[in-house]
């Protein structure tokens, strides 16, 4: 595929992946200006949920790239994985930002002590923080320079993306009050994606495929 085509596909992909963000931005504007439905009666809660779900969906999408490449034999698909992963990180960062904003709006504000208390006392926050920590490490090391510098350890580090997704699903399952159906479906998707990678992981000689995938 020509480099210009890859750039064009990346641009379209970026627009598609960030389209929900545009919609959320529009709803925030509606809520602030009091026009239209906006984010409903509990805007912060709606924002927390939407950004959290989007982070998890896009993260799972990034994990689907390698199985899809193996299935179709189209190696070029790997060229889009970093972009998808970074979009997941963008949503996770927004999710965390909305949470911090929400807690800061309280009477006494939100201090680092409150953060530590939340992490220690609320297990789903502990798990979410761990997942975010992994995503942050992966985003920071996603540049070409870091891939070169870290060599083989880059691959090992980036396998943690499966851990981040699993923690994200557990975080979700822990906090849902009504039905576990959604987290269970996402867990099933994650297990299927991991199962699809198993043959490549178990075959040490398959170095080419391994080099290209976390
Ligand atoms: C420091 C990190 C994080 C914090 C503090 C945090 C906090 C929260 C909070 C407060 C909620 C809403 C709880 C409620 O409604 O009772 C939530 C929901 C959620 N979070 Fe996180 N989260 C974090 C990281 C993550 C990450 C990394 C992911 C995904 C990879 C994620 C995915 C979700 C999902 C899917 C939901 C549920 C959305 C829904 O109910 O529809 N979170 N999170």
Can you walk through the features of this model?
With about 210 residues, the protein is mainly alpha-helical. Helices cover about 80% and strands about 0% of the residues. The structure holds protoporphyrin IX containing FE (HEM). Protoporphyrin IX containing FE binds near residues 49, 59, 96 and 171.
Q: Poorly predicted ranges (pLDDT <50, ≥5 residues)?
A: none
Helix content: over 70%
Termini separation comes to 22 Å
Strand content: under 5%
Order of helices and strands: HHHHHHHHHH
Give the domain tally: 1
**Can you list the ligands bound to this structure?**
protoporphyrin IX containing FE
Shape verdict: globular
Count of separate DSSP helical elements: 10
Mean pLDDT rating: 91
Structural class: mainly alpha
Q: Count the strands?
A: 0
CA radius of gyration:
19 Å
Strand count, sense and closure of the main sheet? Answer: none
